[in-house]
Amino acid sequence: MVGNSKGGTGKSTTAMHLAVALLREGHRVGTLDLDALQGTLSRYVESRRALSERRGLALPQPSHQALAAGDRARVEEALVALAADCDYVVVDTPAGESALSLGGHAHADTLITPLNDSFVDLDVLARVEPDTHRILRPSRYAATVWEMKKERARRDGRSIDWVVLRNRLTNLDAHNKRAMETTLAALGKRIGFRVAPGLTERVIYRELFLLGLTLLDLRDGATGVQLSLSHIAARRELRDLLDALRLASPAHRAAARVGGVDPQAPAA
């Protein structure tokens, strides 16, 4: 599950790239958009299907569902439906706090929180003293995740692997970047997440969204997008991210099949 109470952190881009990466590894993948009113992930999937039909491309496609409203029970129903035919489900959530978002968090095996690499966005995890960067207290979102972790443990005895991505990184080794690294490491130990490398800010992500493509599709050649050195570097970042998430390990796949909303549920 890709979740963050703030918008503009690259949740939908991250979700789509994860889904396509798992598809290209041979897994059956479902995608669930819990922000159907905004519909960013849904538009991404629709654009992908349209491009495949228009150009006759055999692009791997996820099974997709979207919810615009409802309670946590509707989220569980959607996950059960997708679980019937999928090995993995990738869930995209809206900004803010809603019943749909809480429903997704409560059933996550892996919770991925993209975070713009800035102290402005760090506020979603904790309040930090501006001069010393000392952690004052966890944020409301961090407290919500903690409650969802406890709920998951009570329900089936399993834990949520919470991973924070330092997204939209710059190539500059600035003082602010080093300070973020130190603060996140300390905060992760305090509130229970691990940090993984995210995706560098690149124009290509906005261009690919309009086509419904991901970086992993550019190797096909027939997409019409020229592969550059920058794209190759970006794909390496994505591979590092996938390795850090440990989604494709045999142990994780085995665990996924006995957790979640029913005994046959996929990782979410």
Please report the number of helical segments: 10
Number of spatially distinct domains: 1
CATH H-level homologous superfamily name = P-loop containing nucleotide triphosphate hydrolases
Distance between the termini: 5 Å
Tally of extended strands? 8
Please summarize the sheet with the most strands. 3 strands, parallel
- Structural class comes to alpha/beta
Summarize this structure as a short list of keywords or feature phrases:
single chain, 268 residues, alpha/beta, Rossmann fold
Short description:
The chain is α/β, with parallel strands linked by helices. It has helices at residues 11-24, 40-55, 72-83, 99-106, 119-122, 140-156, 175-191, 203-211, 229-245, 250-256, and strands spanning 29-33, 63-66, 88-92, 110-116, 126-128, 135-138, 161-167, 194-197.
Tell me about this structure.
By secondary structure, this protein is of the alpha/beta class. The chain has one domain: P-loop containing nucleotide triphosphate hydrolases (Rossmann fold). It contains ten helices and eight strands. It has helices at residues 11-24, 40-55, 72-83, 99-106, 119-122, 140-156, 175-191, 203-211, 229-245, 250-256, and strands at residues 29-33, 63-66, 88-92, 110-116, 126-128, 135-138, 161-167, 194-197. The strands form three sheets. It has a three-stranded parallel β-sheet with strand order 2-1-3, with helices on both faces. A three-stranded parallel β-sheet has the order 4-7-8, sandwiched between helices. Helix 1 (11-24) crosses helix 2 (40-55). It is globular. The relative contact order is 0.18. Mean pLDDT is 82; it is low at 249-268.
